[in-house]
Amino acid sequence: MIERELKAVVADPERIxxxxxxxxxxxxxxxxxxxxxxDRERELTDRGEVLRIRTCRSATDGAVSSQLxxxxxxxxxxxxxxxxxxxxxxxxxxxxESLVAALGYRECxxxxxxxxxxxxxxxxxxxxxxxxxDVLVEVEGSAAAIEAAVELLxxxxxxxxxxxxxxxxxxxxxxxxxxxxxxxxELEPGERPVWDRV
Length: 198
What we know:
By secondary structure, the chain is an alpha+beta fold. The chain has helices spanning 13-22, 43-47, 93-102, 143-152, 165-176, and strands at 2-9, 26-39, 50-58, 64-71, 75-77, 80-90, 106-120, 123-129, 136-140. It has five helices and nine strands. It has an eight-stranded antiparallel beta barrel. The termini are far apart.
């Protein structure tokens, strides 16, 4: 599978949500995503690849599921971020972690966020709240579906970027003078994540 996407900073997530709801978007998963990335002496990082276990906890019923996934190197074509992706779902995150560890991989990076998924105009739209950073919207699908969703959401096309999460974090830090926190462990003691203040 080839993942194609764009991201943008969202100043008003309530507006985006309202547009999605008025347009008849189908709401999907809402809850917390905990991504844990693994590597073996930078073997994957140096090739631009990602091995991750993503754990999803639903905000509606508390149900938990996990995916073990691999992503290939990022490339940008026609202004879109593209990368190959393979995932499998598992109900046993401990076994997935044991498998990754048995192959010699160790956790190297964490990302925590609260998300809302929607399907609209043939695209998947995901609102993302990080512990300390701008709210982002990710739009994924075919090029035509992405453009239709961006237009529907009235996002300035120039604000939509194939950039990495790290680039968005760097821009946040440069603009605010505060380091972004994309994982709960990066927060100061007693600091509440952004999604608790929304």
